[in-house]
Amino acid sequence: MEILDVNKHESGRIWQRKASSSENGLIVTISHTTSNAFSLQGRSIRFLHAAFNTLGEAFVASDHQGNLYLFDLTKNKFSLIQKIGTPSTALAFCLRRKNEVLVALADYSLRCYDVESHELVSWMKGHDSAIHCISIHASGRYALTSSNTVIQLWDLDTFTRKRTLNGAQTVGIQRGFFLPLSNTIITCFKDDSIFAWDSESLQCKYQLPIPPDDGKNPHYRDLATPRDGRILVAGGRSRFLHVWNLETKNLLHVIQLPTKIRIVKQVEFVSDSFDGGSSQTLGVLAQDGALRFIDVHTCKLLLDIGGNEQMINSMVFSPNGRYIVTMMDNGNINVYSTPALTQLNKPPAPVVKAVIDDRPGSKSSTKSSLSLSGSKKINKDKVVTRKIPRNINGRKESPSVGEQDMSSSWTVPDSGLESELPEGLSRTRLMSILRGYGEYPSKYRMFIWRSLLKLPENHSCYSSLVDKGVHSAYVRVHEEYPIKSRKLLRVLQRTLSSLAHWSAIFGEVDYLPLLVFPFVKLFQNNQLICFEMVASILVNWCQHWFEYFPNPPVNVLGMVENVVAHHDKKLMQHFVNYNVTSKMYAWPLLQTLMSEVLTKEEWLRVWDNVFSNHPSFLLMVVVAYVTSSRKALLQCTEKEDFEYFFHNRNALDINAVIREAYRLQENTPADIHPKRMLEPFAPLTKGQYPVFNKYPKFVVDYQVQERERIRQEELEYLRQRQIAREMKEQTEQRQAEETAFYRQQDLMLDAEDQRRKMIAEEETKLLDQRRRLQAMKREVHLRELQLLDAARRRHLHYQQNQREAELRRLDDEIERKALLREQETEAAVEDADIKALELQAQKEMLQQDMIRDELQTSFKQRTELNTHRQQQELEGDLFRRTLDVMQEVDLDSQRIAQEDLAKVQNKRQNLEKEEEVCLKTRLDDMERELDRVKITRRALENKEREDELQTLTRQLENKENDKAASAMSKLRQWKVQAAKEDNRRAQMLNHSSRDILSRSEDESFEKLREIRRPQARRPMSSITSNTSTEAEDTEFSTPRNDSGPSIERKRATFEKREMELMSEVRDLRKRLAGRRNKVPPEYPTSDSNTSLQ
After folding, report:
1. Do both 74 and 193 map to the same domain?
2. How many Cα atoms sit within 13 Å of 909 on the Cβ side?
3. Which positions make up the signal peptide (predicted)?
């Protein structure tokens, strides 16, 4: 045993001398330690994962620091591929590009490295958790990566993600992998459900049943399937292994492990190991670190490695079954040799030998003879050694195994096959079953066929044939054989292409699809078995078929004719009479292997017997089919009838045909027996398929050359036709483009004319719209002017109403004041009367006092005093009335002046607004309607009329101003005259007051002064009336010392004057009322609006 430390070594040799295994089968131990300056022993870096390549001769391993190593066990060397720096979680080699390896890292990424150039090929990302499993499809194109939450399908040609299979949020994913040699994906979820999915559509195909276990869940941790993909084994947190048959989707059985096993960590099948390569041995790694090897069919424990001292964490088996790589608990890698383990547990040399007599004519086995080991042979007869099987349990031999019955070791001399089969089946028992029931059990038929034919299952060799792709001869097989099932067509095309790549003759045989199709239909889920089954038939049962290619095998058909002629001469003579050769009655049956004339059950029964006998038995079955149908054939007289008979199913008892075939095989003379010309059965060799060259190579080469030449000519013809088609298409396209161009030009001209017409129509419509718009604008403008005029009139009416209301208010105020003044006057008169009464009373008192002395003088004075008082009262009354009239005149004058001023202001505002409107109209007309002369002329005429209107307005304003100025001058003159009258009246009043004072007595004078004192307080400037002045002049025109007129005459004069004054006041009021009711003159605004319209 060698120990290899890869510390500080990027390459080197694995072992220094010739590799040899130790007592326990260990070849080499690989470790990775780092030196430490502070300790004598270095720190060990743990190896985590490993993976073998497709040939099983080299493996890659990664350690905890992210170093990736390649160990080539055949070339005895190792090398450092890459220092990744991140620990890996899974490894796998690619199948198509065998120098590439996929590495899943702890950062959830997936990388691809080239182990030869040590370069990074691709870097893929897409997982959100660590990848714990990588599975490669059998074609090598796809890879499946599994994590706890998702399974992703990657295309290894483009290194892109193709599909994603998500698990439920509450249920995680335990494992996912490709089923070998199929497009099925097996997934196991953490709720122990196992599903099968189609890798192309990701549709669920079926679900495997979970066996009940008293309410306990198995908690599966790992799944395993052999290379043929027929069974599936699952193990988990229990000591039970569940085994399913994937063909029937049923649970086969449950394997109970020893009681000390509580958890199954890993399971994996061993290829080409202990039991002859049938992949029935399962490696089981438990929690105790021991790796046990168990036969899944017999449930026997074969051997175990590892244990408490050397605990194993994980293991990897090589595809060829020669090596076992285990990752140990201490971080090292142990490499075991499977042959060494087998040799250690191999039973001793057999001591029982069977002597077989091979002399001609012998029909049964000779008697057995016993001899001791090491003794000489009795004669030169053939000796077949029967190995006594031995079950290994803990590397101890079971004593009961070697005591088996010797009678089961017998051979069939005519079969050409050894009696011992790889799976441990006995040919004697199989033949007894076949002769007793006429067929094998349908449940185990395929297994028995594979065992009888000893199929080698050369996966790598078959993969190399498949990798060559579709053969040129079968590219269009779907056109000649339209099969509804695309999967079946794909398998048929792949199988035919593999056969053509194996031998060139099979690319030229036109009937090969008919021969292959029945087996393709049977083994469509296992293409490797299908190919090897057909290859075994072509090598053994189709001997000498291709020696006269491309003609039918004349020699084989001659054998059939000889046997038919020997056993049924009448039928042979009938064939000769109607010119029916073996090419017509035997060759159709051989081309299709009788699948055209038999049902599926009959065909399977026939081939159960064919596979169990000498290859010549197939010809005997053909002859038996012909002879068993002699009655129907003797009645046929036309070639078409014979052809129809041998190309369609007929009502025959297949058991009678098989019995007849056995009879013919036993009773046919040796000189014409086909086995004289045919060699015994020879299985396909392991590792590499045999060379098939039993055909006229020059003919096949010539046909291949001719086919290639025809193919090249056809390709050239197709290329020329394609070029001509392309040129024709280009010409047609150009013609179509020219036609389309001219059509487009015509359409463009028509469209242009149509557009012109449309533009003309649109212009006409636009002109009409403009006219309507202009009319609408004109109407809107007129409406605006009307609204403005109405607003102005409303404003004037409002102002007039306001002024009338103000006038009414002023009239009411004047009337109220006049009423108050009258009331005051009446009160004053009443006071004066009271005072007069008082004075009268005083006067009476004075008169009573002076009655005796001055009666006449007192009476005079009282009369004058009364007259003077009345005169004063009249003067005060006239004075107040004159004052009121003057105030009313002043108010009327002010109101008229204010109304004139408001009118002038309104006129000015209206003119400004009209000017603004005209200016806006002129600007709009100048900007938009410059080319319209009529509108411009109208606008100019409107402007002239507006100027005339403005001139008239100014003239009216000047006239009003002149009138106002003349009125103001008259008012000033009136005021001057009034002032003069006031002065004159004041002088006159002063003179009269002096006269009165000089004549009245002191007491009466004082009382009279008190009576006149309120009137003296009134301003003299308010007396402006000419009539009052004249009245005063008239009233005081009497001389001061004139006492001639009587009191009655003066009273009449005063009353007359009062009437005149009242008439003048009424005239003044009428004039004021006439001036208020006078309508102001109409301004020519409406004329200007009419002119604008």
Report:
1. no
2. 13
3. none
Q: Are residues 472 and 507 in the same domain?
A: yes
Cα distances from 377 to residues 356, 373, 534, in angstroms, run: 12, 10, 40
- The answer to whether 314 and 297 are in contact (CB under 8 A) is no
Pairing of strands 2-5, 26-31: parallel
Q: Strands 204-208 and 194-198: what pairing?
A: antiparallel
The reply to whether 142 and 192 lie within a common domain is no
**Among candidate residues 472, 470, 424, 468, the one with its CA nearest the CA of residue 448:** 424
d(CA 193, CA 242) in angstroms, rounded, equals: 13
Tens-digit pLDDT profile for residues 496-538: 999 999 988 888 888 899 999 999 988 888 889 999 999 999 9
Q: Tell whether 154 and 178 lie within a shared domain.
A: no
Calpha distance 242→257 (Å, rounded): 11
CATH number, domain containing residue 54: 2.130.10.10
* Containing structural domain, residue 202: 173-291
* Whether this model's pTM surpasses 0.90: no
Query: Cα–Cα distances in Å, from 522 out to 244, 488, 531, 590, 604?
Result: 20, 10, 12, 19, 10
Domain co-membership, 129 together with 31: yes
Distance CA 719, CA 34 (A): 66
Q: Looking at the structure, do residues 458 and 475 belong to the same domain, yes or no? A: yes
1032: in domain: no
How far are the Cα atoms of 689, 723, 731, 738 from residue 735, in angstroms, in the given order? 60, 18, 6, 5
Residue 689 forms part of a structural domain: no
Question: Within 541-580, where are the H helices?
Answer: 554-567, 569-577
Q: In terms of domains, do 125 and 264 share one?
A: no
Contact 715, 708 (CB under 8 A): no
Tokens (6 digits) for 863: 């009369």
**Kind and range of the H or E run holding 494:** helix 486-502
Nearest to 189 by CA among 214, 215, 210, 212: 210
Please report, for residues 234, 256, 298, 313, the alpha-carbon distance to residue 262 in angstroms, rounded to integers and kept in the order given. Answer: 14, 11, 22, 15
CB 277 within 8 A of CB 321: yes
Q: How far apart are CA 195 and CA 213, in angstroms?
A: 20
Confidence check: pLDDT of 23 > 70: no
The string of pLDDT tens digits covering residues 739-779 is 888 888 888 888 888 888 888 888 888 888 888 888 888 88
Q: What is the residue type of 1040?
A: R
Of 876, 872, 1085, 874, which Cα lies nearest the Cα of 996? 872
> Do 6 and 102 sit in the same domain of this protein?
yes
Question: Residue 268 in contact with residue 283, Cβ under 8 Å?
Answer: yes
